[in-house]
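Appendix B. Worked example

We walk through a single record from start to finish. Start with the input: the chain for Acyl-CoA dehydrogenase family protein, Clostridium tanneri, length 378.
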Amino acid sequence: MNFKLTTEQEMIKNMVREFTEKEVAPYDGEMDKKGEFPWHIIDKMRENDIFGIPFPEEYGGAGADAICEAITLEELGRGSASVAITLDAHMLCANPMHLFGTEEQKKKYLPDLVSGKKLGAFGLTEPCAGSDAAGIQTMAKLEGDHYVLNGRKAWITNFSVADVYIIAAKTNPDAGVKGISAFIVEKGTPGFIIGDKEDKMGVRGSDTGELIFDNCKIPKENLLGSEGQGFKIAMIALDSGRMGVGAFGVGIAQHAMEEAIKYANQRTAFGKNIGKFQAIQFMIADMATEIAAARNLVYAAAFKRDCKERFSLEAAMAKLYSAEAAMKITKNAIQVFGGYGYSREYPVERLLRDAKILEIGEGTSEILRMVIGGSMVK
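Next comes the structure step. The output line below is what the pipeline stores for this chain.
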């Protein structure tokens, strides 16, 4: 693995950073206060071809690698976790479509997803099936030339703003994980109901809520992959999703450290800037070290994906470490600010609230430790 970014990777990093600083970061505080989805930013992302960075040129993408995808999510996360998680959830739809879709499905859906003309979402989690993904209760029954879906999904990112959804449902309830299949469902399909929106602690500019399927009929050709392949599709999608969460977790942590350094160089106490004190320098030293370690874990996962090797372990490690590092770094950034860090006048308290979802979504820290530990003892 080459630790020096290629010319293309550097170009994408600089482009997304400039875009984020101009079009994303200035609006993050407003998104947090209002809890509104940032359509104006989505429009700008479309104009700058940010949705298509890691997808093949034949579908309208830039043909870049997974490291470029990680860089994109990190830079967006540095400006707004809400925008980064929106893109990551979109990728959870587009990536499995690219990997498992038939050529007809790819031609029908990928160009609009790659351009950002349509947003995507992935529906796995249910009210009683989060970490226990195999415990989903949504059912899909084949009736002639269509499937009938019944059930409910919860905590779905992009739930009301998406146009195309990949939904996991049981086609054979007696077969365990081998009885789960994946389906492409379009917004507006009869029986597909957009449910209630969640009022969240953080990433308040992202769109999160429930999906309801009440005798929802979808064409048989909207089966993604084959029957019984849904759990495999979900797990492969989550590998890339976890890599993405790790990446924008690095962005959140980087932002928090930059704010802490800036404040430490301005705030005076006992006759000098607090950045001169060893206690503050040690906290910043730990921040910088943990950010570098998290970023390298994310890149290692992306590198293995680019090599077309299984990267479940690396993705789990990257997501676990990045999530916990981001929580620690945002907490310590507040400590550097002192009382002002507890005020909404400054951004660090928002960064702490945003970072918390990293330890929960797309695999809790506890589940990831099970994944990593189980892999090690084998």
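Two observations about the output. The two ends are 25 Å apart (CA to CA). The mean pLDDT is 97.
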